[in-house]
Amino acid sequence: MDNLTHTMFGATLARTPLGRAGRGATAALIIASNAPDVDFVAAAGGASKYLEWHRGITHGPLGMTGLAVLTASLIVAARHLNPKWRHPDDAPFGMLVAVSFVGVLVHVLMDLPTSYGTRLLSPFSWRWFAVDWMPIVDVYLTVLLAAGLFFGRASPAARRRNAAIVLAFTAAIYGVRAAAHRQALDLAPRLYGPTLPPRCDARPEPTTWVDSWPKTTLPLPQTGQRCLVELAAFPTFASPFDWRIVAQMSNAFELREINVLDNSLRETNPQSNGSWRRAIRYPNVWTPAVQQAAATGLGRMFLGFSRFPAARAATDASGSATVRFTDVRFVLGPAVADQPAPPVQLFTATIKLDAEGRIVFARLGP
Questions:
Q1: Burial of 266 by CB count in 10 Å (0-12 exposed, 13-18 middle, 19+ buried)?
Q2: What's the average model confidence in pLDDT over 159-179?
Q3: Mean pLDDT, rounded, of the chain
Q4: Preceding omega of 189 cis (within 30 degrees of 0)
């Protein structure tokens, strides 16, 4: 989630019994609720370094524990530097560590349901995990938290009451998005209609709440026929009922949009309106040039980060190849082929190789 949401959620938690741990608990919760994003310092090494380390060790068990201790230490150190901040009701160091750990843990747990995901087990495992319920910025949650903090200023009783109400409505927001996400996945095959090929793997798809990556890229079937690797549904910013569906085929990605309240998708023959014909298609053909680019430093980093990397390559007369990897999770704009404006590709890596396979340049961006 965004840091404004993390900050307001930490302030809301401070109005629960956690805030009674003593003076300094509120500051500990607010600081700790943002502490895992200290990994932004990696941006000093460039955008690629930031992607390499973002939501990594600071979002794993060792990082969470270390950040809790660091947050508590900062508050205690501030008391020693400024005697005016000392008070008999100050929370002891151990209590500050416990409260700070709650703040850090809640931060990570709020990142997990986003489509961006987080690396929960780093540094023991650098795999990404995500639940795909929430966008990075949820306007409804932001407004709810802001309203709860504003209208709960009257008295301690009002603060506690409003905090309880806000947390209940927060759970409802997550519940609505979880249910809508399940509906989007259930309706997705009807959205694609006759264009949806059979699955590459004949085994039933495992039912799991949490997805993880990077995954092994499935090769094209020996028959040469197109098949379905995976279906995923990603939240949008505007409505919890609008979702972007990504279908990973054996040779391409296809993006479509769905509203789970659209009753036409539940008709006996939902393909009759022809909506299944409209989609944005990203080829994903792993040529030898793509394989070479994937083995470069930037290629390995980007493919480790990207959940759905679409690869395309162009070779010029000299034999040089330009390879682009695009994470289709973050393609902005309508996923409809006849829209006048093309979608915006936020996460792309471009690698150019000469005829001998040497790197000419490698950068993030088109």
A1: exposed
A2: 95
A3: 87
A4: no
User: What beta strand segments (E) does the chain contain?
Assistant: 128-130, 211-213, 228-235, 242-249, 252-259, 280-283, 309-315, 321-327, 331-332, 344-345, 348-353, 359-364
For residues 248 and 167, is the Cβ–Cβ distance under 8 A? Answer: no
Q: Which residue has the tokens 């001998």?
A: 356
**Nearest CA-CA partner of 291 in 357, 194, 196, 218:** 357
pLDDT digits (tens, 9 = 90+) for 275-334: 555 678 888 988 999 999 999 999 999 999 999 999 999 999 888 999 999 999 988 765
Percent of the chain with pLDDT over 70: 88
Task: Copy the structure tokens of residue 353.
Answer: 């190789």
Residue 158 carries which side chain, given as an amino acid letter? A
Residue 206: helix, strand or coil by DSSP? coil
Contact call for residues 274 and 194 (beta carbons, < 8 A):
no
